[in-house]
Amino acid sequence: MEQQKHAASLGMWLFLATELMFFGGMFCAYLIYRYSYPVEFGVGSRTLNLPLGAANTAVLICSSLTVALAIRAAQMAKRTLMVVLLLLTMVFGLTFLVIKGFEWAEKYEKHHIPGASFQLSAEDMKGVSVDPENMQDFQQRTQTFYSLYFAMTGLHALHMIIGVGLFLYLTYAGWKGQYGPGYYTPLENGGLYWHFVDIVWIYLFPLLYLIDRNLQK
Amino acid sequence: MATTANLTAERENYLNREYGVSSWLLTVDHKRIALLYLASITFFFFVGGLFALLIRLELLTPAGDLVMADTYNKLFTMHGQIMVFFFLIPSIPATLGNFLVPMMIGAKDLAFPRINLLSWYLYIIAGTLMMHCVLTGGVDTGWTFYTPFSTAFSNTKVIEAGLAIFINGFSSILTGLNFVVTVHRMRAPGMTWSRLPLFIWSTYATSVIFLLGTPVIAITLLLVVFERAFNLGIFDPNRGGDPLLFQHLFWFYSHPAVYIMILPAMGVVSEIVPCFSRKRVFGYHFIAMSSIAIAVFGFLVWAHHMFVAGISLYSALVFSALSYLVAVPSAVKVFNWTATMYKGSVTFSTPMLYAFGFIGLFTIGGLTGLFLAALGLDVHVHDTYFVIAHFHYIMVGGAVMGFLGGMHFWWPKISGKLYPEAWGRLAAAIVFIGFNLTFFPQFILGYMGMPRRYWQYPPEFQVLNVLSTAGSTILAVGYILPMVYFTWSLRYGKPAGDNPWGASGLEWQTQSPPTTFNFDQTPIVTREAYDYENMPLPEEVSLER
Amino acid sequence: MYWGIWLLLIVMTVVTAFIANVDLGRFNTVVALVIATFKASVVVLFFMHVKYTSEKLTKVVIISAIFFLVILLSLSMADYGTRLMH
User: Quick check: bond before A186 cis, omega within 30?
Assistant: First the structure.
C-alpha cells in the first residue's frame, strides 16, 4: 500500500510536469509575441477587466486553502469537515468559471474576439499614439494578444472544469467514507492537480492583466 | 492471436490463461498489451509503407505522371505522419518496452496496468481518427505542419490529423509516465540502478523525453487546430503571427522525438551485442549515462531544423555547436559496443546481424547528421534528398533494424517458439541490401541538388531514383519475410526453452512464454547485468541450423 | 499554518495588482514575475507539501520540468533577441 501511495504520488508529479510543458508552450508563444509587440500587448492588457481578474486570483487562492484544509481534515479523521471543505473547493472553482464567463462575455460585447468582427475602439486605444497609416496593422497585430488570452485562459478554464469534475468524484468518495488517516492518497493527488491549476493562474494574472497598467500619457 | 494447442501438455502462460476477445481487449497484463500494440503498429507500418511505395513509384520517372502534384503532397505527408507518430514512436517502447520492462526489473507488471491499457486505447482512437482522415482526403502540409500553410491555406483535413496526433501524444505520455514510475518504484530487491539492463536505461531516458517533450507538440498542434477552427490568428502573418514561432514550438518536441525513436533501438542493441559476444558490456556506466545525456542534450538542439528559415545567425551558431555536442554520447555507445565485441566469441545470429546493421547504418546516418549541423553545408543540402537519406539511415537503418533485431531476440520469450534461423538471416541480409540500395543513392541525389517533396525532377536524377525505387522493393520483401515466418513459427516453430540464447537478464529466468505474473517468486538480484563470463553457453539451440 | 499561507498569498496578490499602477518602467514586468514566482513557490512548498516531503525524487521532477521549460523559453528568445543584431 505504501508502495502504491508512493507510485501514485510520483505518477501525479510526473503528470504535472507534463502539464507544465503543455502550458509552457503557450507561455513561449506569449513571451515571443510580447517581446515583438510590446505596445500592442499593453493595449490589449488594459482592456481586460482587472478587478474581475484579481477577484478570480483571490478565489483560486481560497480554493487552494480549502483543498489543503480538506486533506488535513482527512488526516484527522474529520469526515464531515473534509466533505464540507471539498464542496467549498468546488464552489470556489465554479465561482472562478462564472467570473471568467462574465469576462469572456464582456470581450464579446466589446468586439475583442479575434476574427472578422475584431475592433478596437478609441477608448481602448487611449494613451497610445499610432500613425494613421499604421493603425490598421497595429489593430491587426493586437489580435495576437487576444488570441493568446483566449487560448490560455480557455485551456486553463478547461483544466478547472476537469478539476471540478475530479473533486466531484473525490467529494462523493469522501462522503462514502473512503478517505481517512490511513488512506487519503487520491485526495492528496487531486489536491496537487488543483494547486497546479492555481499556479498557472498565478502566472496568467500578471502576464495578461498587468501589462502597462501605469500608462500616464 | 493464434496459440499452439498441440503435442504435450502445455504449461499455463499469459497466452493460454484466458481466451476470448474480451480477455484481450480488457486485459491489464503488460505482455498482452504489448501484443495488442504489436498488431496495431504493424498495421500502421503497412499503411505508411504503402505510401512510401507510391512515392517511390512516382519518382521512377522525372515527370509527374503517376499522381497529381496535390496528391503527391498528401502521399509524403501521410507517409511521414503515420510512420513517425503511429509506427516509430510507439514501436519499441510500446511493444518490447511494455513486454520487457517489468520482467527485466523483476516486477509482476507495470506500476499502473490500467493506465497502460488506456494508453493503447488512446492510440487506437488516435489511429482510427488518422485512418479516417487518410481515407477521406488526407493532409498535404508535410508531416511538419508548417504555418501559415497548415493554418490558413491548406484545403485538407488538418484539424483531424492534428487532433489524431494530439490524442496519440497522450498515449505516449502515459506510457512514459508508467515506465518512469515503474523503474523508480518496482525494482526487485538487489536490482540497483547499476545492475539494470541497458535496455531499461534507454527506455527510461526515452520516457523522460516522452514526458517533457510530447506536451509541447500537443499544445502546438492544438493551437493550429484552434487557429483553423476559431480563426484565432496566432500564426496568421496578417495579424502579427510568426511562422517561426510555430517552427520553434514544433521542433522543440520533434527533435527530441527522433531520440525517442532511436534510444530504445540502442537499448536493444546493448542487449544483443553482449549476448552474442558472450562478453560483458564494455563501459556499462558510460552507455547508461550516455542514454541520459542523449535525452538531455536532445532538448537543446531543435533549431538546427531552422537554419535557413530565418532565425538569427547567432542563435544558429549556438544550435550548431550544441548539435555537434549531442553526437558525442551516441559515438560513445558505438565505441563501447565495438569494444564489447572485441575478443568476444561472436555468433552471427539473426539478432546479431541486425545489431551489426544498426551499428554501421546508424553511424553513417549519425555522421551525416554532423554534415547537416554545419551551417555552411546545411545551406546547400537543406530540404534536399540528403536530409531524407540522413534521417532514413537513422530511423530505418537504425531504429527499424533495432526493432527487428529485438523482435527476433525476444521472440522465443514472447511466443515460446523459435523462428527459423536461416530465414531470419536471409531476411536480415535482404533488408540490409534493400535498405542501402534505397537510401544511399539519395545522399548523392541530395548533394547533387534534388529537392525533397517534389513530385517531378530533372532527368539527370533519374538513374539514381530508379536505383532507389528498386531498392525499396527489395526492402519490402525483407520486411514481409519476418511477418510470414513469425506467424508460421507460432504454429510450426520448435518450442523454445526458457533461455535459448543463454542470455543474461531476469526475463530469461522465466518460462517461455511467461506466466501472467512473470515470476513465481520475486527474484533477488545479486549479480551485475551482463555476467557473461560466468554464464554457460546456450545448450539447447544450435545456431547452425 | 495554511491560513497564514493563504493570507500571504492574498496580500501578495493585492501588492502585485497595486504595484502595476506604479511606473517602474521595464521593472514592472520583473516585479510582477518575481511576486508571481514567490506565490507559486509558496503554493508548491506549503500547499503541495514539498517542503515537508522527504522524497528527493519529487524535487528532481519539479526542477527538471522547470529547467526544460526555461530551455524552451530562453533558447527561443535567444533567436528573437539576436535577430536585429546584424
Answer: no
Residue C66 grid coordinates: 522547470
Q: What residue segments make up the domains of chain A, in order of their start? A: 2-209
What SS3 class is residue B528?
coil
Rounded (10°) CA dihedral B510, B516, B520, B524: 60
Q: Note whether residue B388 is domain-resident.
A: yes
**Peptide bond before B256: cis, by omega within 30 degrees of 0?**
no
Report how far residue B173's alpha carbon sits from residue B213's, in angstroms, rounded to the nearest whole number: 9
Cβ distance of C78 and B248 shorter than 8 Å: no
Residue identified by cell 507534463 is A18
Q: φ and ψ at B451, to 5 degrees? A: -75, 155
Smallest CA–CA distance, residue C64 to chain B, in Å, is 9
Range of the domain at B205: 30-534
pTM: 0.94
3-state secondary structure of B304: helix
Establish if C62 touches chain A: CB-CB under 8 angstroms. yes
Report the residue from A22, A33, A142 with minimal CB separation from B218: A22
Residue matched to cell numbers 483531424: B160
pLDDT tens, per residue, chain B with 545 residues? 444 444 445 788 888 888 889 999 999 999 999 999 999 999 999 999 999 999 999 999 999 889 899 999 999 999 999 999 999 999 999 999 999 999 999 999 999 999 999 999 999 999 999 999 999 999 999 999 999 999 999 989 999 999 999 999 999 999 999 999 999 999 999 999 999 999 999 999 999 999 999 999 999 999 999 999 988 889 989 888 899 999 999 999 999 999 999 999 999 999 999 999 999 999 999 999 999 999 999 999 999 999 999 999 999 999 999 999 999 999 999 999 999 999 999 999 999 999 999 999 999 999 999 999 999 999 999 999 999 999 999 999 999 999 999 999 999 999 999 999 999 999 999 999 999 999 999 999 999 999 999 999 999 999 999 999 999 999 999 999 999 999 999 999 999 989 999 999 899 999 889 989 888 888 888 888 888 887 777 754 444 43
Q: CB count, 10 Å around CB of A21?
A: 25
Are residues B240 and A37, on separate chains, in Cβ contact within 8 Å? yes
Is this prediction's ipTM beyond 0.85? yes
Residue type, A126: K
CATH architecture assignment, domain A2-209: Up-down Bundle (1.20)
User: Which residues of chain C are within 8 Å of residue B319 when distances are taken between CB atoms?
Assistant: 75
Partner residue opposite C86 with nearest CB, options B244, B303, B313: B313
3-class DSSP assignment, residue B417: strand
Cross-chain residue pair A36–B238, CB shorter than 8 Å: no
| CA–CA gap between residue A72 and residue A3 (Å, rounded) | 21
CATH number at B155 reads 1.20.210.10
Interface subset of C 6-45, CB within 8 angstroms of A: 6, 9-10, 13-14, 16-17, 20-24, 28-29, 32-33, 35-36, 39-40, 43-44
For residue B222, give the 3-state DSSP assignment.
helix
Interchain proximity B248–C65, CB inside 8 Å: no
Q: Which long-range contacts (CB under 8 A, 24 or more apart) does B36-41 make?
A: B36/B120, B37/B90, B37/B94, B37/B95, B37/B98, B37/B120, B37/B123, B38/B95, B39/B1, B40/B90, B40/B120, B40/B123, B40/B124, B40/B127, B41/B86, B41/B87, B41/B90, B41/B91, B41/B94, B41/B95
Please report residues of B whose CB lies closer than 8 A to that of C79. Answer: 244, 248, 303, 311-312, 315
Min Cα distance B224 → chain C (Å) is 19
